Amino acid sequence: MALPAHQPAAKGFPHGPVAFSLRKPQAADGAAIHRLIAACPPLDVNSLYCNLLQASHFADCCILAEGAGLVVGWISGYRLPVDPRTLFVWQVAVDPAVRGQGLGQRLLTALLARPGLGDITAIATTITPSNRASWALFQGFADSQGAPLRHDTHFDRERHLAGTQESEHLVTIGPLPTMRAAA
Ligand SMILES: CC(C)(COP(=O)(O)OP(=O)(O)OC[C@H]1O[C@@H](n2cnc3c(N)ncnc32)[C@H](O)[C@@H]1OP(=O)(O)O)[C@@H](O)C(=O)NCCC(=O)NCCS
């Protein structure tokens, strides 16, 4: 059965400021997360099953935002298997209708402020050179933590991505302060 299309937040949103609530996901959120990601190019749309695993097995490293009863923000992540004190941020998605209000930054800050992630000393992610919003988001987070941001080509367009998409730069932010403010 095909999933219903993501309902853009703008359609269901009241005018004026909307309060967002941030929380850990659960499996029941998987379909809404899947639809949000599909509405947020250039993100890869992985399978719904992948989002279900993220929202259940990896819930401690993921966070979602709700506004007016809709899932409007999402970060998936996991601890790097070879370095569990580094949190790999897989995808960040904010509904187009509520971008530019600091929600992406709030999600990232709140995720890293979780007591269960207090031992995380660095975050890593990959960003394509043209994704200005993503660079600004992670640079803003690094600045807010007073932590250096380093980057280098990681997955090369020709060597790893079969010439089909832009190279992905590996971005590392750390060392992070041990006491991190909540969003
Ligand atoms: C990237 C994304 C998550 C940002 O969400 P957001 O809630 O709008 O981000 P914020 O409002 O917290 O803004 C964070 C920073 O990015 C900047 N920014 C936001 N959109 C921008 C854009 N289109 N171009 C340049 N800078 C941008 C903001 O000015 C802010 O910078 P500042 O801290 O210096 O003021 C959102 O644009 C998105 O979902 N994009 C599509 C999916 C994607 O590319 N995800 C990232 C890769 S995993």
From TrEMBL:
GO BP terms in the entry: ectoine biosynthetic process
CDD domains in the cross-refs: NAT_SF
Pathway the protein acts in: Amine and polyamine biosynthesis; ectoine biosynthesis; L-ectoine from L-aspartate 4-semialdehyde: step 2/3
Keyword Transferase found: yes
Pfam families in the cross-refs: Acetyltransf_1
Keyword Acyltransferase found: yes
E.C. designation(s): 2.3.1.178
Superkingdom field: Bacteria
Family: Belongs to the acetyltransferase family. EctA subfamily.
Classification via InterPro entries: Acyl_CoA_acyltransferase, Ectoine_EctA, GNAT_dom
Name under which the protein is recorded: L-2,4-diaminobutyric acid acetyltransferase
Entry keywords, A to Z: Acyltransferase, Transferase
